[in-house]
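Data availability (excerpt). The following record was deposited with the supplementary files.
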Amino acid sequence: MAMEIRRITVIGAGTMGHGIAGQAALSGFEVILNDLDPGRTGAGQAAIHRSWGTGVEKGKVTEAQAAEAAGRLTTSTDLEAAVADADLIIEAVPESLELKRAIFARVDAVAPAGALLATNTSSLPVTEIAAATKRPAQVVGMHFFNPVAVMKLLELVRGEHTSDATVEAARALGAALGKETILVIDSPGFATSRLGIALGNEAMRMFEEGVASAADIDTAMTLGYRHPIGPLALTDLVGLDVRLAITEHLYRELGTDTFRPPRILKRMVRAGKLGRKSGEGFYRY
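Predicted structure:
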């Protein structure tokens, strides 16, 4: 039987971290949002309340549900204290293998013996992250999508040692959060990042070659293939720096020209044009 999850700690209060924490609290879980920087936890908590407010305005969330969720959400800057009673710890820090392994080692040392550990990585090897712990069977990839409150997909990644019980617990959590889950084995880029980066890289090369404008390339995919957002607009949403890190990792792992970082992507990142978060990417915001 899959373990029952009631208390969740999310490590990292950035865009993905606060999105996961907000959705979990709204879905009935007791949640701690943890970050070393109190400013980030405060900003993350504020963003969660804004998201709930938008849900109330659109009639998707009642005021009572938002108020109850607020009572289930707390923040912390003390990692060890934040995970001490958790049933599930979800790591959502930047895409650095060394950073994630260091966090998992710290968490493993103090989290309850039965607690599950999940990484929100979009491309890094779950098996290698799990190897930093003494409980690799209880480690799973849980790749959420931005914005978490809206996107229905949750990509579960099974590491080399991930147990059936861990997978089933992750599936059950996904259902409780209102997500559709897919299960993939631990391979470079999993399913979503590998396909998404391939399309995004080619769109960037087309733009760089002057094949069409950014808007027309995106419209080709939104109207021609019914994608909800074009590949260049999606790159702006995710962050050009994030996309560059992922494609560099995939190029190292797979070695095909498909994943060779486009020159324009590297130039834009060096220039600080990171997309929505910096105010400019392939579009201006």
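Summary of structural features: The chain has twelve helices and eight strands.
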